[in-house]
Amino acid sequence: MPHRIHHHKSPPQENNMTFKSAITVSLVEEARGGPFVYWEGLKDACQKSASLGFDAIEIFAPGPDAVDEAELKGLLQEHGLVVAAVGTGAGMVKHGLSLTHADADHRAKARDFVKQMIDFGGKYNAPAIIGSMQGKWGGDISRDQALGFLREALDELGPYAAQYNVPLFYEPLNRYETNLLRTVDEGVEFCKTLSTDNIKLLADLFHMNIEEADLAAAIRAGKGYVGHIHFVDSNRQAAGMGHMNHEPIIQALKDIDYDGYLCAEAFALPDSDTAAKNTIEAYKRLTA
Predict the structure, then answer these.
(1) Does 167 fall in a domain?
(2) Boundaries of each Xylose isomerase-like TIM barrel domain copy (predicted)?
(3) Where would I find the H helices in the chain?
(4) Taking 70 as the threshold, does the pLDDT of residue 11 lie above it?
């Protein structure tokens, strides 16, 4: 009998990695058509994602005051969900703000917007994401200057996020969206130059598919730095709908003891419901 009990306990000990599933909802009309699965509000997103078995939602909001706190907390409680992360991209898409802009007042406004989004996410224990707000270098700004501005921003915003006991996520983007940092390795090396240790990398499989020679190897090399995953396919559709081989990627995440979210930041193709269903099916198959 003791042997049988031991036998039944072994599998969970062998595979003690626990991934969590999440799905994106955009509340930003200006971004309509972008890579977010749900578009029809928080109530719709919470009902549908919970019914499919997702653990969390990731919110792309136009600003810190766009969401009614009591309503969202009620929806999360009702549906057994949490907030995985909050995007700051509306700072760029809606307000044109960049953390690496040539003008110091503009950069200060950009940092203030991110702080407000960190405050918003903090109410739900959710980290904020810096993606498109990192901007680009060019014109009067050299790459070194832009990276200096980015370093300045992250060294201010990382500690700011720490008050909520959450990291701040920085996302390397592909060459068509930024000319700053494009790979996990570049992100790791940059993090090593920061004075804060509260920045973690968001590894987005779509961006990685463009920039990385070997996605699994890149994730392994990011051990200790990768804090969030955007779980999609090569064409930015739901996992399983492109040509990406996800098995080695999932194995690499297990190898680095990753226990965060696999979040679908994917196009709502052919529609939101199908993209969500395809994502959760791929997630269950790959993490079983």
Answers:
(1) yes
(2) 47-284
(3) 2-14, 42-52, 69-79, 90-93, 104-122, 143-162, 184-191, 205-211, 215-221, 247-255, 272-287
(4) no
Per residue in 236-263, pLDDT (tens digit) is 999 999 999 999 999 999 999 999 999 9
Q: What is the pLDDT of residue 2?
A: 45
CB burial of residue 236 (10 Å; 0-12, 13-18, 19+): buried
Note whether residue 10 is domain-resident.
no
**Is 4 inside any structural domain?**
no
Question: What are the backbone dihedrals phi and psi of residue 6, each rounded to the nearest 5 degrees, phi first?
Answer: -60, -40
Domain count, the chain: 1
Q: What angle do CA 126, 57, 243 make, to 5 degrees?
A: 115
Output the domain CATH number for residue 64. Answer: 3.20.20.150
Please report the pLDDT score of residue 17 as a whole number.
60
Pairing of strands 261-264, 20-26: parallel
- Of the pLDDT bands very low, low, confident and very high (cuts 50, 70, 90), residue 79 is very high
Task: Look at residue 37 and give its three-state secondary structure.
Answer: coil
Structural domain of 89: 20-287
pTM listed for this prediction? 0.93
145-182 tens-digit pLDDT? 999 999 999 999 999 999 999 999 999 999 999 999 99
State which amino acid sits at residue 214: D
Beta bridge partners of 87: 60, 129
Residue 250 inside a domain? The answer is yes
In angstroms, what CA-CA distances link 234 with 117, 131, 242, 261?
29, 19, 5, 19
Cis omega before residue 248 (within 30°)? no
Amino acid occupying residue 197: D
Residue 10's contacts (CB-CB under 8 Å, 6 or more residues apart) are none
